[in-house]
Amino acid sequence: MALCALAVVSSVRAEGDASAGAKVFAQCSACHTVGAGAQNSVGPVLNGVVGRAAGKYPAYRYSSAMRKSAVTWDEATLGTYLRAPDKLVPGTKMAFPGIANDQDLANLIAYLKQQKAE
Amino acid sequence: MATKLKPVDIAIVGLGWAGGIVAKELAATGLKIVAFERGGPRATNPDFMAPQVHDELRYWRRHELIQNLRKETLTFRNDPSQLALPMRQLGSFLPGEGVGGAGTHWSGLHWRWTEWEHKMYSGTVAKHGKGIIPADMNLQDWPIDYHELETYYDKFEKVCGTSGKAGNLQGKKIDGGNIFEAPRASEFPNPPLTQSHGMVLFEKAARNLGYHPFPVPASNASRAYVNPDGVALGQCHYCGFCTAYGCEANAKASPHFTVIPLAQKNPNFEARTNSYVMKVNLDSRGKRAVSVTYLDAGGREFEQPADLVVLAAYVFGNVHLMLHSKIGKPYDYQRNTGVVGRNYAYQSMGGVAALFPKGTYLNPFMGAGALGTWIDDFNSDNPDFTKLGFIGGGGISTGNNGGAPISRRATAPGAPRWGAGWKKAVVETYHRFASVGNQGSVMSYRQNYLDLDPTYTDSFGRPMLRLTFDWQENEFKQMEYARGICGTIAKEMGAEQVLSRRERGRYSIVPYQTTHNTGGTVFGDDPRTSALNKYLQSWDVSNVFVVGSSAFPQNAGRNPTGPVGALAYRLADTLKERYLQRPERLVDV
After folding, report:
1. How far is it, in rounded angstroms, from Cα B179 to Cα B173?
2. pLDDT tens digits, chain B, 589 residues: what are they?
3. Are the C-beta atoms of A13 and A106 separated by less than 8 Å?
4. How far apart are CA B408 and CA B153, in angstroms?
5. B230 touches chain A (CB under 8 A)
6. Which residues of B touch A97 (CB under 8 A)?
7. Residues in a beta bridge with A72
8. Number of domains comprising chain A
9. What residue in B sits closest to A98 (Cα-Cα)?
10. Contacts of A27 in chain B (CB under 8 A)
11. Which CATH superfamily hosts domain B3-579?
12. B469-479: string of b/e by CB count within 10 Å (b at 16+)?
């Protein structure tokens, strides 16, 4: 039974449902924007975040921790970061408790992948 | 010499919740509006970003977000026989400064006042007769009742994403909510925040004693939320830096990221920051406001003509501007006549401290500004005034609102007062010390008032506002009665020791108590006892409106921001639907 559940989780993780991820993104939207006309606010614009080097979006003032992190955002790093931001980048100014649910996380990353750079 | 600027339609003084709401609602009409804010602009990024916003020294001890007393302050005395002296350090209350005002650094306790709290005079007389009202108490009704404000209370909660549980939904009492609240049309927009251990103990104890505990309505969002204006609020993560701080998660509702940016989307609206309004200028007959005079950041003087002036500053700012501009008759304590400065009231913060057995972990470092469990069983008009000998009540509660290292240093009685022993005692006590507090109502009295100081002037050369205030017998009785209840609850919670002091001293302006000052430009139906009519319009100068808790005739045993926001939304409707259609006096004398 446990194995079976694991298999389900990993397959969800591989695919992720972007439309369900849009709902998860509500947790991010107090600080981050995506889509046409997105602007830096509390946090940086997330268009094109997947594949981007951390701390590099133009005109956003990152913490020095993020600027120096040498992280590139992909599924793996985003997965680690969004679970507990200050574990991967101690000193980040992203004050967010983290997403605990694997499914939500996979869906959110699938959604972020859809947000292409301008 | 003031530089005269091009006229605008509306000048708003103060850009906190009250001014921000009026600005947002009226900016959409296309009228030319300028809002003046004495402090600077503020944005979550960069002003409130973690980790630097969690700086207790900067925000709590050095008051980064609070009024600059070097520019203007007030004088204080306990009674009219004394010489009032200027308040040179912040203490008893902390008026906000900067865009968002006190809305940036409030805790987020977001109440609707009860039906009685809008009708304290007639409600008290109907139940107990006129005989129980002390001769020096100016007990007055609001000119409108709860039901006229319900839709505005509802709107403000939805804008703020208030987290709570209804206790009276359209007349149906619901266990777990506040069964003493006035009927509400709809449930809170968000569910209650997660309880702390201390709150669980309080809830259980209060239930055991037959009371009705409920989660404090909190404008600290319990989940990610998008309000009806399309503004997103983040989820509160219980960081414990709320009261006196800005919120880095936009979880604590604040005008600086909700209503004010929406006003600013309209090109006809302008926020003029670092601008101190000195005075509202009247025409030669003193019947009409023609402009406001203000100083910009460089100290240059400007005159801004406007057809309509809305005063939306803090209580003291509203009263000071009314007095200094000669709008309405100043209150005269000797003759008990006049209205501006009359009915100043405050709030009492009492109760007990409770020390729990070793091994209790209350985790004070986790918390939110409004994270608490409360009972209204002894608040509003629920106590029997005739039997107890006082009018009013108090909210009794416990909460986790933050346990930052400079201010949170309680020790058990008998502990060393300094040195290594003291440090050890602080550590030993940190996790097992809590308070069961009473937030008591304060009535208005003939001898508690605001007027212009005859001796001292502020840095701009204006006479300072003078505050004359002391506790009265009625309030002492309420505090003592509630203290007994708080002690009983603390014991029932399992406290090892209950610590309390008999509170009989004079009011002191030195220690922080609460930023819930009220009155001075009271609204009412009788121009002899109110400065404003029921539409918050000056009885004397019909193009001046005043909004904020300066309009409250007396203070309740709960926080004032809910009704302040509701009144601001109502004022915006009054202006749009009535005044701007026919700009004249809305109530005949």
Report:
1. 5
2. 799 999 999 999 999 999 999 999 999 999 999 999 999 999 999 999 988 899 999 999 999 999 999 999 999 999 999 999 999 999 999 999 999 999 999 999 999 999 999 999 999 999 999 999 999 999 999 999 999 999 999 999 999 999 999 999 999 999 999 999 999 999 999 999 999 999 999 999 999 999 999 999 999 999 999 999 999 999 998 999 999 999 999 999 999 999 999 999 999 999 999 999 999 999 999 999 999 999 999 999 999 999 999 999 999 999 999 999 999 999 999 999 999 999 999 999 999 999 999 999 999 999 999 999 999 999 999 999 999 999 999 999 999 999 998 999 999 999 999 999 999 999 999 999 999 999 999 999 999 999 999 999 999 999 999 999 999 999 999 999 999 999 999 999 999 999 998 778 999 999 999 999 999 999 999 999 999 999 999 999 999 999 999 999 999 999 999 999 999 999 999 999 999 999 999 999 8
3. yes
4. 34
5. no
6. 235, 237
7. A53
8. 1
9. B237
10. 224, 234-235
11. FAD/NAD(P)-binding domain (3.50.50.60)
12. bbbbebbbebb
Please report the residues numbered 15 through 44 in chain A whose beta carbons come closer than 8 angstroms to any beta carbon of chain B: 26-31, 40-43
Q: Where are the domains of chain B?
A: 3-579
H/E element, B455? strand B449-457
Is A97 close to B235, i.e. CB distance below 8 A? yes
Q: Which residue of A has its CA nearest to B247?
A: A95
A31, A42, A93: residue with CB nearest B51 = A93
Tell me the CATH number at A28.
1.10.760.10
Q: Residue B522 and residue A109: Cα distance in Å, rounded? A: 55
3-state secondary structure of A53: strand
Backbone angles phi, psi at B279, to 5 degrees: -165, 150
Using a CB–CB cutoff of 8 Å, tell me whether B239 touches chain A.
yes
Q: Exposed, middle or buried by CB within 10 Å (0-12, 13-18, 19+), for B258?
A: buried
HSE-CB at A106 with a 13 A cutoff on CA atoms is 13
Active site (annotated) includes residue B63: no
Distance separating alpha carbons of residues B266 and B27, to the nearest angstrom: 6
Structural domain range at position A58? 2-114
Q: What DSSP element (H or E) covers B344?
A: strand B342-345
Q: Which residue has the tokens 């009674």?
A: B79
Q: Supply the ipTM of this predicted assembly.
A: 0.73
Q: Spell out the residues 6+ positions from residue B396 whose beta carbon is closer than 8 angstroms to its own.
A: B351, B374, B375, B377, B378, B379, B436, B437, B438, B439, B482, B485, B486, B489
* Burial (CB count <10 Å: 0-12, 13-18, 19+), residue B382: middle
Token reading at B186: 């709809």
CA distance B155 to chain A (A): 20
Q: Provide the 10 A C-beta neighbour count for residue A105.
A: 23
What are the angstrom distances between the C-alpha of B499 and each of A7, B402, B407? 57, 20, 18
The span from the CA of B504 to the CA of B509, in Å, is 15
